[in-house]
Amino acid sequence: MRIATWNVNSAKQRMPRLLPWREQRRPDVVCLQETKLTDSAFHELLDAALAGLGYEVAHHGHGGFNGVALLSRVGLDDVVADFPGQPQYEGVTEARALSATCDGVRIHSLYVPNGREVGSPPLAGVHCLDRDGHREHLHSGGRCAGGTVVPSVILGRATSVARSVEGTQAAVGNGTGGGHWSQEEDDEKGEEEDEDEHEEAGGEGRGRWGERLVLVSTLADAVLPLIRTRSDLYRYSAANAHGRDMHEAVDILESAISRTDPAEVYSVTHKALASALKVIARADDSSGIIGDACRRLLELHPRAAAAARTPAGKLIDWMMKFQFDDDEVDYFELDPVAYAPALGEVGVASYRKRLAEVEAKLGPRPANRWQSGHSHEWFTLDWNAQRLAVFDHDIDAIIRTHAKDRKVAAWLEDTAEAFEEIGEIELAIDWAKQATDFDRGHQSLKAADYWCGLLDAHRPAEALDARLSVFRKWPSSTSAARLHKASGKSWPDYRDEVVATLAASPRDAVLFALLTLKDSEFAWNLAHSLALDSDHTWSEVVKAYEQVDPIATLPIHQRLVENELVEAGAQHYRLAARRLAKMRKLSAGSEKSAEVNDLIAALREIHRRRPRLQQEFDRAGLP
Q1: Buried b vs exposed e over 183-203: b needs ≥16 C-beta within 10 Å?
Q2: pLDDT, position 474
Q3: In this structure, is residue 501 part of a structural domain?
Q4: Whole-Å CA distances, 546 to 190, 267, 376, 400, 554
Q5: In which domain, by residue range, is 43 found?
Q6: Which residues, in sequence order, are CB contacts of 345 under 8 Å at separation 6+?
Q7: Is 75 helix (H, G, I), strand (E, B) or coil?
Protein backbone atom coordinates (compact mmCIF):
# COMPACT_ATOMS: atom_id res chain seq x y z
CA MET A 1 0.00 0.00 0.00
CA ARG A 2 1.35 3.45 -0.92
CA ILE A 3 0.44 6.05 1.71
CA ALA A 4 1.14 9.78 1.42
CA THR A 5 0.66 12.71 3.76
CA TRP A 6 0.51 16.42 2.96
CA ASN A 7 0.01 19.45 5.20
CA VAL A 8 -1.80 21.43 2.51
CA ASN A 9 -2.38 24.72 4.39
CA SER A 10 -5.74 25.34 2.63
CA ALA A 11 -7.23 22.64 0.43
CA LYS A 12 -8.77 25.27 -1.82
CA GLN A 13 -5.38 26.78 -2.60
CA ARG A 14 -3.76 23.38 -3.20
CA MET A 15 -6.61 22.04 -5.37
CA PRO A 16 -4.88 22.92 -8.69
CA ARG A 17 -1.82 20.90 -7.62
CA LEU A 18 -3.45 18.11 -5.64
CA LEU A 19 -4.95 16.17 -8.55
CA PRO A 20 -1.86 16.40 -10.81
CA TRP A 21 0.28 15.32 -7.85
CA ARG A 22 -2.05 12.38 -7.25
CA GLU A 23 -1.74 11.38 -10.89
CA GLN A 24 2.05 11.52 -10.63
CA ARG A 25 2.43 9.66 -7.33
CA ARG A 26 -0.68 7.47 -7.44
CA PRO A 27 -1.00 6.89 -3.68
CA ASP A 28 -3.51 4.39 -2.37
CA VAL A 29 -4.20 6.50 0.72
CA VAL A 30 -3.67 10.22 1.24
CA CYS A 31 -3.65 11.99 4.60
CA LEU A 32 -4.27 15.74 4.45
CA GLN A 33 -3.87 18.26 7.24
CA GLU A 34 -4.77 21.94 7.70
CA THR A 35 -7.49 21.84 5.06
CA LYS A 36 -9.09 24.97 6.55
CA LEU A 37 -12.55 23.90 5.37
CA THR A 38 -15.78 22.72 6.92
CA ASP A 39 -16.87 19.17 6.17
CA SER A 40 -19.49 20.31 3.69
CA ALA A 41 -17.09 22.61 1.81
CA PHE A 42 -14.41 19.92 1.61
CA HIS A 43 -16.77 17.29 0.26
CA GLU A 44 -18.10 19.72 -2.29
CA LEU A 45 -14.52 20.54 -3.27
CA LEU A 46 -13.20 17.02 -3.75
CA ASP A 47 -15.89 14.33 -3.73
CA ALA A 48 -16.79 14.49 -7.40
CA ALA A 49 -13.20 14.77 -8.63
CA LEU A 50 -11.96 11.88 -6.50
CA ALA A 51 -14.94 9.59 -6.96
CA GLY A 52 -14.04 9.25 -10.60
CA LEU A 53 -10.54 8.18 -9.56
CA GLY A 54 -11.85 5.51 -7.21
CA TYR A 55 -11.22 7.32 -3.92
CA GLU A 56 -13.48 7.44 -0.90
CA VAL A 57 -13.22 10.61 1.17
CA ALA A 58 -13.50 11.36 4.90
CA HIS A 59 -12.99 14.83 6.37
CA HIS A 60 -13.14 16.39 9.81
CA GLY A 61 -12.98 20.19 9.99
CA HIS A 62 -14.70 23.28 11.27
CA GLY A 63 -13.18 25.77 8.81
CA GLY A 64 -10.42 28.23 9.64
CA PHE A 65 -7.02 26.97 10.63
CA ASN A 66 -7.57 23.24 11.20
CA GLY A 67 -9.08 20.28 9.36
CA VAL A 68 -7.85 16.76 8.53
CA ALA A 69 -8.85 14.34 5.81
CA LEU A 70 -8.33 10.81 4.51
CA LEU A 71 -8.61 9.81 0.86
CA SER A 72 -8.51 6.10 0.08
CA ARG A 73 -8.98 3.86 -2.92
CA VAL A 74 -8.46 0.67 -0.87
CA GLY A 75 -11.43 1.05 1.46
CA LEU A 76 -12.37 3.54 4.16
CA ASP A 77 -14.02 1.81 7.11
CA ASP A 78 -14.73 2.64 10.75
CA VAL A 79 -14.00 6.35 10.35
CA VAL A 80 -13.40 8.07 13.70
CA ALA A 81 -12.88 11.79 14.28
CA ASP A 82 -10.78 12.94 17.27
CA PHE A 83 -9.63 10.50 19.93
CA PRO A 84 -10.51 10.02 23.62
CA GLY A 85 -8.65 12.45 25.83
CA GLN A 86 -7.75 14.75 22.97
CA PRO A 87 -6.80 18.14 24.46
CA GLN A 88 -9.23 21.00 24.10
CA TYR A 89 -8.56 24.69 23.53
CA GLU A 90 -10.92 27.04 25.35
CA GLY A 91 -13.42 24.19 25.78
CA VAL A 92 -13.41 23.19 22.10
CA THR A 93 -12.05 19.93 20.67
CA GLU A 94 -10.37 21.15 17.51
CA ALA A 95 -10.54 19.14 14.28
CA ARG A 96 -7.02 17.73 14.32
CA ALA A 97 -7.39 13.92 14.26
CA LEU A 98 -9.10 11.50 11.88
CA SER A 99 -8.60 7.76 11.54
CA ALA A 100 -9.99 4.93 9.43
CA THR A 101 -9.19 1.36 8.45
CA CYS A 102 -7.87 1.09 4.89
CA ASP A 103 -7.23 -2.38 3.50
CA GLY A 104 -6.69 -3.80 6.99
CA VAL A 105 -4.44 -0.99 8.24
CA ARG A 106 -5.57 1.62 10.78
CA ILE A 107 -4.41 4.98 9.42
CA HIS A 108 -4.39 8.19 11.48
CA SER A 109 -4.16 11.65 9.91
CA LEU A 110 -3.04 14.09 12.62
CA TYR A 111 -2.54 17.83 12.68
CA VAL A 112 -0.89 18.47 16.04
CA PRO A 113 -0.70 22.15 17.01
CA ASN A 114 2.75 23.62 17.33
CA GLY A 115 1.58 24.79 20.71
CA ARG A 116 0.46 28.06 22.12
CA GLU A 117 2.11 29.14 25.36
CA VAL A 118 3.93 26.62 27.54
CA GLY A 119 1.49 24.83 29.80
CA SER A 120 -1.52 25.39 27.57
CA PRO A 121 -3.73 22.30 26.98
CA PRO A 122 -2.87 22.02 23.27
CA LEU A 123 0.86 22.15 23.97
CA ALA A 124 0.46 19.72 26.86
CA GLY A 125 -1.38 17.46 24.44
CA VAL A 126 1.52 17.62 22.01
CA HIS A 127 3.91 16.33 24.63
CA CYS A 128 1.41 13.73 25.84
CA LEU A 129 1.47 12.38 22.30
CA ASP A 130 5.04 11.30 22.92
CA ARG A 131 4.39 9.82 26.34
CA ASP A 132 2.29 6.84 27.34
CA GLY A 133 -0.96 8.66 26.63
CA HIS A 134 -2.17 9.66 23.21
CA ARG A 135 0.71 7.92 21.46
CA GLU A 136 -0.29 4.67 23.13
CA HIS A 137 -3.92 5.23 22.26
CA LEU A 138 -3.11 5.85 18.62
CA HIS A 139 -0.82 2.84 18.33
CA SER A 140 -3.21 0.52 20.14
CA GLY A 141 -6.12 2.28 18.49
CA GLY A 142 -5.57 0.15 15.42
CA ARG A 143 -8.58 -1.99 16.05
CA CYS A 144 -11.80 -2.43 14.16
CA ALA A 145 -15.21 -1.77 15.66
CA GLY A 146 -15.48 -5.45 16.58
CA GLY A 147 -12.27 -5.28 18.59
CA THR A 148 -9.92 -7.00 16.11
CA VAL A 149 -6.41 -5.61 16.34
CA VAL A 150 -4.96 -4.34 13.07
CA PRO A 151 -1.66 -2.63 12.17
CA SER A 152 -1.68 1.14 12.55
CA VAL A 153 0.14 4.02 10.86
CA ILE A 154 0.32 7.55 12.26
CA LEU A 155 0.91 10.34 9.74
CA GLY A 156 0.64 14.08 9.71
CA ARG A 157 2.24 17.17 11.13
CA ALA A 158 3.60 17.20 14.68
CA THR A 159 6.65 19.44 14.91
CA SER A 160 6.73 20.16 18.64
CA VAL A 161 6.59 16.71 20.21
CA ALA A 162 9.50 15.51 22.30
CA ARG A 163 10.14 12.71 19.81
CA SER A 164 9.21 13.54 16.25
CA VAL A 165 6.24 11.75 14.71
CA GLU A 166 6.01 14.15 11.81
CA GLY A 167 5.19 12.55 8.51
CA THR A 168 6.90 13.52 5.30
CA GLN A 169 5.24 16.17 3.17
CA ALA A 170 4.10 15.47 -0.32
CA ALA A 171 6.65 15.84 -3.08
CA VAL A 172 5.18 18.70 -5.06
CA GLY A 173 8.12 20.74 -6.24
CA ASN A 174 8.46 23.86 -4.16
CA GLY A 175 5.01 23.54 -2.62
CA THR A 176 4.91 22.50 1.00
CA GLY A 177 2.12 22.59 3.48
CA GLY A 178 3.42 25.83 4.94
CA GLY A 179 3.09 27.97 1.83
CA HIS A 180 5.82 30.27 3.21
CA TRP A 181 7.68 33.07 1.49
CA SER A 182 11.30 34.08 1.90
CA GLN A 183 12.30 36.99 4.09
CA GLU A 184 13.18 38.92 0.94
CA GLU A 185 9.67 38.41 -0.34
CA ASP A 186 8.33 39.52 3.02
CA ASP A 187 10.35 42.72 2.94
CA GLU A 188 9.21 43.36 -0.61
CA LYS A 189 5.58 42.90 0.39
CA GLY A 190 6.14 45.03 3.46
CA GLU A 191 3.61 45.79 6.11
CA GLU A 192 0.39 47.68 5.74
CA GLU A 193 1.16 51.04 4.15
CA ASP A 194 -0.74 54.21 4.78
CA GLU A 195 -0.69 55.66 1.28
CA ASP A 196 -4.15 54.43 0.39
CA GLU A 197 -5.64 54.25 3.85
CA HIS A 198 -7.72 57.34 3.26
CA GLU A 199 -9.75 55.30 0.80
CA GLU A 200 -9.90 52.30 3.10
CA ALA A 201 -11.35 54.49 5.80
CA GLY A 202 -14.30 55.09 3.53
CA GLY A 203 -13.72 58.57 2.14
CA GLU A 204 -11.98 60.60 -0.51
CA GLY A 205 -9.42 62.22 1.76
CA ARG A 206 -11.69 65.25 2.31
CA GLY A 207 -14.32 66.35 4.78
CA ARG A 208 -15.15 64.30 7.87
CA TRP A 209 -13.64 61.02 6.55
CA GLY A 210 -10.42 62.69 5.46
CA GLU A 211 -10.08 64.50 8.78
CA ARG A 212 -10.51 61.20 10.53
CA LEU A 213 -7.07 60.15 9.32
CA VAL A 214 -5.54 62.77 11.54
CA LEU A 215 -7.77 62.09 14.53
CA VAL A 216 -7.21 58.32 14.75
CA SER A 217 -3.64 58.58 15.95
CA THR A 218 -4.24 57.67 19.61
CA LEU A 219 -6.17 54.45 19.00
CA ALA A 220 -4.11 53.60 15.93
CA ASP A 221 -0.84 53.99 17.84
CA ALA A 222 -2.12 51.63 20.51
CA VAL A 223 -3.45 48.98 18.14
CA LEU A 224 -1.54 48.86 14.87
CA PRO A 225 1.97 48.23 16.26
CA LEU A 226 0.58 45.11 17.93
CA ILE A 227 -0.78 43.86 14.60
CA ARG A 228 2.01 44.77 12.21
CA THR A 229 5.43 43.17 12.24
CA ARG A 230 8.39 42.52 9.97
CA SER A 231 9.66 39.73 12.18
CA ASP A 232 10.19 36.20 10.89
CA LEU A 233 6.99 34.35 11.75
CA TYR A 234 7.91 31.02 10.19
CA ARG A 235 8.90 29.74 13.64
CA TYR A 236 5.83 28.76 15.62
CA SER A 237 7.16 30.31 18.85
CA ALA A 238 7.51 33.70 17.18
CA ALA A 239 4.13 33.35 15.48
CA ASN A 240 2.46 32.48 18.76
CA ALA A 241 4.08 35.41 20.56
CA HIS A 242 2.91 37.81 17.86
CA GLY A 243 -0.53 36.20 17.89
CA ARG A 244 -0.88 37.10 21.55
CA ASP A 245 -0.01 40.70 20.67
CA MET A 246 -2.70 40.66 18.00
CA HIS A 247 -5.32 39.48 20.46
CA GLU A 248 -4.29 42.27 22.81
CA ALA A 249 -4.85 44.70 19.94
CA VAL A 250 -8.34 43.32 19.32
CA ASP A 251 -9.09 43.59 23.04
CA ILE A 252 -8.20 47.28 22.87
CA LEU A 253 -10.46 47.79 19.85
CA GLU A 254 -13.39 46.00 21.47
CA SER A 255 -13.06 48.00 24.66
CA ALA A 256 -12.89 51.23 22.63
CA ILE A 257 -16.29 50.70 20.96
CA SER A 258 -18.35 52.17 23.78
CA ARG A 259 -16.08 55.13 24.57
CA THR A 260 -14.45 56.16 21.28
CA ASP A 261 -15.74 57.92 18.19
CA PRO A 262 -17.22 55.14 16.01
CA ALA A 263 -15.53 56.45 12.87
CA GLU A 264 -12.17 56.23 14.61
CA VAL A 265 -12.84 52.66 15.74
CA TYR A 266 -13.84 51.64 12.22
CA SER A 267 -10.82 53.24 10.60
CA VAL A 268 -8.37 51.51 12.92
CA THR A 269 -10.26 48.19 12.72
CA HIS A 270 -10.13 48.37 8.94
CA LYS A 271 -6.39 48.98 8.91
CA ALA A 272 -5.79 46.32 11.55
CA LEU A 273 -7.70 43.75 9.49
CA ALA A 274 -5.75 44.52 6.33
CA SER A 275 -2.47 44.19 8.23
CA ALA A 276 -3.56 41.01 10.01
CA LEU A 277 -4.24 39.28 6.70
CA LYS A 278 -0.75 40.13 5.49
CA VAL A 279 0.67 38.73 8.72
CA ILE A 280 -1.14 35.39 8.55
CA ALA A 281 -0.16 34.95 4.90
CA ARG A 282 3.48 34.58 5.92
CA ALA A 283 3.18 33.01 9.38
CA ASP A 284 3.37 29.46 10.69
CA ASP A 285 -0.03 29.58 12.33
CA SER A 286 -0.27 25.89 13.18
CA SER A 287 -1.68 26.72 16.60
CA GLY A 288 -4.36 28.94 15.03
CA ILE A 289 -3.76 31.88 17.34
CA ILE A 290 -3.25 34.37 14.50
CA GLY A 291 -6.24 32.99 12.61
CA ASP A 292 -8.35 33.46 15.72
CA ALA A 293 -7.26 37.11 15.92
CA CYS A 294 -8.19 37.59 12.25
CA ARG A 295 -11.61 36.09 12.88
CA ARG A 296 -12.16 38.41 15.81
CA LEU A 297 -11.33 41.37 13.59
CA LEU A 298 -13.70 40.05 10.92
CA GLU A 299 -16.46 39.86 13.54
CA LEU A 300 -15.69 43.35 14.79
CA HIS A 301 -15.44 44.96 11.35
CA PRO A 302 -19.18 44.93 10.41
CA ARG A 303 -20.16 46.16 13.87
CA ALA A 304 -17.69 49.00 13.63
CA ALA A 305 -18.86 49.82 10.10
CA ALA A 306 -22.49 50.00 11.22
CA ALA A 307 -21.66 52.21 14.22
CA ALA A 308 -19.56 54.54 12.04
CA ARG A 309 -22.24 54.69 9.33
CA THR A 310 -19.65 53.84 6.73
CA PRO A 311 -20.87 54.74 3.21
CA ALA A 312 -22.47 51.60 1.79
CA GLY A 313 -20.86 52.03 -1.61
CA LYS A 314 -17.35 52.09 -0.17
CA LEU A 315 -18.13 49.13 2.08
CA ILE A 316 -19.49 47.08 -0.82
CA ASP A 317 -16.40 47.86 -2.92
CA TRP A 318 -14.21 46.58 -0.11
CA MET A 319 -16.33 43.47 0.44
CA MET A 320 -16.12 42.54 -3.24
CA LYS A 321 -12.37 43.13 -3.32
CA PHE A 322 -11.82 41.11 -0.17
CA GLN A 323 -13.76 38.13 -1.48
CA PHE A 324 -12.84 38.06 -5.16
CA ASP A 325 -9.48 39.83 -5.60
CA ASP A 326 -7.33 38.52 -2.72
CA ASP A 327 -5.05 35.82 -4.13
CA GLU A 328 -3.05 35.35 -0.92
CA VAL A 329 -5.57 34.54 1.81
CA ASP A 330 -8.74 32.76 0.72
CA TYR A 331 -9.74 30.85 3.84
CA PHE A 332 -11.79 33.56 5.50
CA GLU A 333 -15.34 34.39 4.44
CA LEU A 334 -17.33 37.56 4.95
CA ASP A 335 -20.82 37.16 6.33
CA PRO A 336 -23.30 39.41 4.49
CA VAL A 337 -25.79 38.84 7.33
CA ALA A 338 -23.37 40.54 9.72
CA TYR A 339 -22.87 43.44 7.28
CA ALA A 340 -26.60 43.97 6.61
CA PRO A 341 -27.05 46.57 9.41
CA ALA A 342 -24.15 48.58 8.01
CA LEU A 343 -25.36 48.28 4.40
CA GLY A 344 -29.02 49.00 5.00
CA GLU A 345 -31.81 47.85 2.70
CA VAL A 346 -30.51 49.75 -0.30
CA GLY A 347 -26.96 48.61 0.33
CA VAL A 348 -27.95 44.95 0.55
CA ALA A 349 -29.79 45.27 -2.77
CA SER A 350 -26.68 46.86 -4.32
CA TYR A 351 -24.52 44.08 -2.92
CA ARG A 352 -26.79 41.42 -4.43
CA LYS A 353 -26.51 43.23 -7.77
CA ARG A 354 -22.71 43.20 -7.61
CA LEU A 355 -22.73 39.46 -6.88
CA ALA A 356 -25.05 38.89 -9.84
CA GLU A 357 -22.65 40.83 -12.07
CA VAL A 358 -19.77 38.59 -11.02
CA GLU A 359 -21.81 35.47 -11.73
CA ALA A 360 -22.87 36.78 -15.13
CA LYS A 361 -19.24 37.31 -16.12
CA LEU A 362 -18.39 33.73 -15.20
CA GLY A 363 -20.83 32.30 -17.70
CA PRO A 364 -22.80 29.07 -17.29
CA ARG A 365 -22.41 27.31 -13.96
CA PRO A 366 -20.08 24.30 -14.36
CA ALA A 367 -21.24 20.81 -13.39
CA ASN A 368 -18.36 20.68 -10.91
CA ARG A 369 -17.27 24.12 -9.81
CA TRP A 370 -13.95 22.84 -8.45
CA GLN A 371 -12.83 21.67 -11.88
CA SER A 372 -13.49 25.06 -13.44
CA GLY A 373 -10.97 27.86 -13.71
CA HIS A 374 -13.07 29.96 -11.34
CA SER A 375 -13.55 27.59 -8.41
CA HIS A 376 -12.89 30.29 -5.82
CA GLU A 377 -15.42 32.65 -7.39
CA TRP A 378 -18.10 29.96 -7.51
CA PHE A 379 -17.40 28.96 -3.92
CA THR A 380 -17.72 32.57 -2.79
CA LEU A 381 -20.95 33.08 -4.70
CA ASP A 382 -22.43 29.90 -3.21
CA TRP A 383 -21.39 30.97 0.28
CA ASN A 384 -23.10 34.31 -0.20
CA ALA A 385 -26.19 32.57 -1.53
CA GLN A 386 -26.35 30.49 1.66
CA ARG A 387 -25.96 33.47 3.95
CA LEU A 388 -28.41 35.64 2.03
CA ALA A 389 -30.97 32.84 2.16
CA VAL A 390 -30.60 32.96 5.94
CA PHE A 391 -30.88 36.76 5.87
CA ASP A 392 -34.11 36.47 3.87
CA HIS A 393 -35.50 33.73 6.17
CA ASP A 394 -36.27 31.89 2.93
CA ILE A 395 -36.89 28.27 3.87
CA ASP A 396 -36.82 26.90 0.33
CA ALA A 397 -33.63 28.82 -0.46
CA ILE A 398 -31.96 27.55 2.70
CA ILE A 399 -32.72 23.95 1.74
CA ARG A 400 -31.56 24.53 -1.83
CA THR A 401 -28.28 26.22 -0.90
CA HIS A 402 -27.34 24.23 2.20
CA ALA A 403 -28.65 20.69 1.67
CA LYS A 404 -27.83 20.67 -2.07
CA ASP A 405 -28.38 17.08 -3.28
CA ARG A 406 -28.55 15.73 0.29
CA LYS A 407 -25.68 13.31 -0.31
CA VAL A 408 -23.51 14.43 2.63
CA ALA A 409 -24.51 14.31 6.29
CA ALA A 410 -22.64 17.54 7.02
CA TRP A 411 -24.81 19.40 4.49
CA LEU A 412 -27.93 18.26 6.33
CA GLU A 413 -26.48 19.51 9.61
CA ASP A 414 -25.58 22.83 7.94
CA THR A 415 -29.25 23.12 6.94
CA ALA A 416 -30.34 22.47 10.50
CA GLU A 417 -27.98 25.12 11.84
CA ALA A 418 -29.32 27.65 9.34
CA PHE A 419 -32.88 26.97 10.47
CA GLU A 420 -31.86 27.33 14.10
CA GLU A 421 -30.27 30.67 13.27
CA ILE A 422 -33.56 32.05 11.95
CA GLY A 423 -35.59 30.60 14.80
CA GLU A 424 -37.19 27.72 12.85
CA ILE A 425 -36.50 25.27 15.65
CA GLU A 426 -38.85 22.49 14.52
CA LEU A 427 -37.21 22.46 11.11
CA ALA A 428 -33.78 22.55 12.72
CA ILE A 429 -34.59 19.50 14.84
CA ASP A 430 -35.99 17.65 11.83
CA TRP A 431 -32.93 18.29 9.66
CA ALA A 432 -30.53 17.49 12.48
CA LYS A 433 -32.33 14.15 12.87
CA GLN A 434 -31.97 13.51 9.13
CA ALA A 435 -28.23 14.12 9.44
CA THR A 436 -28.07 11.78 12.44
CA ASP A 437 -29.88 9.01 10.56
CA PHE A 438 -27.84 9.48 7.37
CA ASP A 439 -25.29 6.74 8.15
CA ARG A 440 -22.96 5.60 10.92
CA GLY A 441 -20.08 7.87 9.92
CA HIS A 442 -18.40 10.52 12.03
CA GLN A 443 -20.38 13.34 10.39
CA SER A 444 -23.63 11.71 11.48
CA LEU A 445 -22.20 11.21 14.97
CA LYS A 446 -21.35 14.91 15.13
CA ALA A 447 -24.85 15.76 13.91
CA ALA A 448 -26.31 13.45 16.55
CA ASP A 449 -24.74 15.51 19.32
CA TYR A 450 -26.15 18.68 17.74
CA TRP A 451 -29.59 17.06 17.45
CA CYS A 452 -29.53 16.05 21.10
CA GLY A 453 -28.45 19.56 22.06
CA LEU A 454 -31.44 21.01 20.25
CA LEU A 455 -33.74 18.61 22.06
CA ASP A 456 -32.14 19.49 25.39
CA ALA A 457 -32.93 23.14 24.75
CA HIS A 458 -36.33 22.90 23.08
CA ARG A 459 -37.87 19.46 23.67
CA PRO A 460 -36.34 18.25 26.93
CA ALA A 461 -38.90 15.49 27.31
CA GLU A 462 -37.45 13.80 24.20
CA ALA A 463 -33.78 14.29 25.06
CA LEU A 464 -33.26 11.10 27.07
CA ASP A 465 -34.67 8.82 24.37
CA ALA A 466 -32.46 10.59 21.84
CA ARG A 467 -29.32 10.08 23.94
CA LEU A 468 -30.22 6.41 24.35
CA SER A 469 -30.64 5.94 20.59
CA VAL A 470 -27.30 7.66 19.96
CA PHE A 471 -25.55 5.42 22.49
CA ARG A 472 -27.02 2.30 20.91
CA LYS A 473 -25.88 3.41 17.46
CA TRP A 474 -22.42 4.66 18.53
CA PRO A 475 -21.55 2.97 21.84
CA SER A 476 -18.53 4.62 23.46
CA SER A 477 -17.45 6.10 26.77
CA THR A 478 -18.44 9.51 25.43
CA SER A 479 -21.98 8.63 24.33
CA ALA A 480 -22.43 6.64 27.56
CA ALA A 481 -21.35 9.67 29.61
CA ARG A 482 -23.92 11.84 27.84
CA LEU A 483 -26.63 9.26 28.41
CA HIS A 484 -25.63 9.09 32.08
CA LYS A 485 -25.98 12.85 32.41
CA ALA A 486 -29.33 12.93 30.60
CA SER A 487 -30.82 10.07 32.61
CA GLY A 488 -30.36 11.70 36.01
CA LYS A 489 -32.18 9.78 38.72
CA SER A 490 -33.31 7.13 36.22
CA TRP A 491 -29.70 6.07 35.51
CA PRO A 492 -30.11 2.67 37.27
CA ASP A 493 -32.62 1.73 34.55
CA TYR A 494 -29.86 1.97 31.93
CA ARG A 495 -26.74 0.97 33.84
CA ASP A 496 -26.76 -2.75 33.04
CA GLU A 497 -27.33 -2.19 29.32
CA VAL A 498 -24.60 0.44 29.11
CA VAL A 499 -22.01 -1.64 30.98
CA ALA A 500 -22.82 -4.77 28.97
CA THR A 501 -22.62 -2.89 25.67
CA LEU A 502 -19.34 -1.18 26.53
CA ALA A 503 -17.79 -4.51 27.52
CA ALA A 504 -17.13 -5.08 23.81
CA SER A 505 -14.60 -2.25 24.09
CA PRO A 506 -12.73 -2.69 27.40
CA ARG A 507 -11.08 0.69 27.15
CA ASP A 508 -14.43 2.49 26.80
CA ALA A 509 -15.97 0.46 29.61
CA VAL A 510 -13.13 1.20 32.02
CA LEU A 511 -12.93 4.90 31.15
CA PHE A 512 -16.68 5.25 31.61
CA ALA A 513 -16.51 3.65 35.06
CA LEU A 514 -13.51 5.75 36.01
CA LEU A 515 -14.31 9.17 34.56
CA THR A 516 -18.12 9.27 34.50
CA LEU A 517 -19.19 6.97 37.31
CA LYS A 518 -16.07 7.95 39.29
CA ASP A 519 -15.98 4.43 40.72
CA SER A 520 -12.32 3.43 40.86
CA GLU A 521 -13.03 0.00 42.36
CA PHE A 522 -15.52 -0.82 39.61
CA ALA A 523 -13.04 0.42 36.99
CA TRP A 524 -10.28 -1.72 38.57
CA ASN A 525 -12.44 -4.83 38.50
CA LEU A 526 -13.58 -4.18 34.94
CA ALA A 527 -10.01 -3.68 33.76
CA HIS A 528 -9.12 -7.14 35.06
CA SER A 529 -12.27 -8.97 34.02
CA LEU A 530 -12.25 -7.52 30.50
CA ALA A 531 -8.48 -8.05 30.04
CA LEU A 532 -7.79 -4.39 29.35
CA ASP A 533 -4.75 -4.06 27.07
CA SER A 534 -4.38 -0.29 26.94
CA ASP A 535 -1.34 0.88 28.92
CA HIS A 536 -2.59 4.46 28.99
CA THR A 537 -5.94 3.42 30.45
CA TRP A 538 -4.24 1.12 32.96
CA SER A 539 -2.10 4.07 34.00
CA GLU A 540 -5.24 6.10 34.73
CA VAL A 541 -6.83 3.18 36.60
CA VAL A 542 -3.86 2.56 38.92
CA LYS A 543 -3.56 6.28 39.62
CA ALA A 544 -7.12 6.23 40.96
CA TYR A 545 -6.93 2.82 42.65
CA GLU A 546 -3.77 3.75 44.57
CA GLN A 547 -6.08 5.56 46.97
CA VAL A 548 -7.92 2.29 47.67
CA ASP A 549 -5.18 -0.35 47.74
CA PRO A 550 -1.71 0.95 46.83
CA ILE A 551 0.00 -2.42 47.22
CA ALA A 552 -2.42 -4.09 44.78
CA THR A 553 -1.36 -1.67 42.04
CA LEU A 554 2.34 -2.64 42.16
CA PRO A 555 2.11 -5.54 39.64
CA ILE A 556 0.39 -3.22 37.14
CA HIS A 557 3.01 -0.54 37.70
CA GLN A 558 5.71 -3.15 37.07
CA ARG A 559 4.10 -4.25 33.82
CA LEU A 560 3.83 -0.62 32.65
CA VAL A 561 7.52 -0.09 33.43
CA GLU A 562 8.53 -3.17 31.46
CA ASN A 563 6.34 -2.15 28.52
CA GLU A 564 7.86 1.33 28.57
CA LEU A 565 11.36 -0.11 28.31
CA VAL A 566 10.55 -2.16 25.21
CA GLU A 567 11.48 0.93 23.21
CA ALA A 568 14.82 2.69 23.70
CA GLY A 569 14.95 6.43 24.23
CA ALA A 570 15.42 9.02 26.95
CA GLN A 571 11.71 9.75 27.22
CA HIS A 572 10.88 6.08 27.81
CA TYR A 573 13.65 5.76 30.38
CA ARG A 574 12.46 8.89 32.17
CA LEU A 575 8.87 7.67 32.38
CA ALA A 576 9.95 4.26 33.60
CA ALA A 577 12.18 5.83 36.26
CA ARG A 578 9.34 8.03 37.52
CA ARG A 579 7.01 5.06 37.76
CA LEU A 580 9.62 3.04 39.67
CA ALA A 581 10.03 5.95 42.08
CA LYS A 582 6.26 5.93 42.54
CA MET A 583 6.40 2.18 43.27
CA ARG A 584 9.01 2.77 45.97
CA LYS A 585 6.80 5.39 47.56
CA LEU A 586 3.72 3.16 47.46
CA SER A 587 5.56 0.18 48.91
CA ALA A 588 7.46 2.09 51.60
CA GLY A 589 7.14 0.40 54.98
CA SER A 590 5.62 -2.77 53.53
CA GLU A 591 7.06 -6.19 52.75
CA LYS A 592 6.92 -5.26 49.06
CA SER A 593 9.55 -2.56 49.47
CA ALA A 594 12.45 -4.99 49.05
CA GLU A 595 10.82 -6.55 45.98
CA VAL A 596 10.61 -3.14 44.31
CA ASN A 597 14.30 -2.49 45.01
CA ASP A 598 15.13 -5.93 43.62
CA LEU A 599 13.17 -5.09 40.48
CA ILE A 600 15.13 -1.86 40.03
CA ALA A 601 18.42 -3.72 40.46
CA ALA A 602 17.34 -6.34 37.94
CA LEU A 603 16.38 -3.68 35.40
CA ARG A 604 19.72 -1.93 35.85
CA GLU A 605 21.48 -5.19 35.13
CA ILE A 606 19.31 -6.12 32.14
CA HIS A 607 19.84 -2.69 30.59
CA ARG A 608 23.45 -2.18 31.71
CA ARG A 609 24.44 -1.22 28.14
CA ARG A 610 21.99 1.69 28.16
CA PRO A 611 23.90 4.53 29.86
CA ARG A 612 21.07 6.99 29.39
CA LEU A 613 18.73 4.65 31.26
CA GLN A 614 21.19 4.44 34.13
CA GLN A 615 21.41 8.23 34.12
CA GLU A 616 17.61 8.66 34.28
CA PHE A 617 17.40 6.09 37.09
CA ASP A 618 20.03 8.04 39.01
CA ARG A 619 18.20 11.32 38.45
CA ALA A 620 15.03 9.77 39.87
CA GLY A 621 16.92 8.79 43.01
CA LEU A 622 16.61 5.06 42.40
CA PRO A 623 19.00 2.68 44.21
Answers
A1: eeebeeeeebeeeebbebbbb
A2: 97
A3: yes
A4: 59, 60, 58, 58, 9
A5: 3-157
A6: none
A7: coil
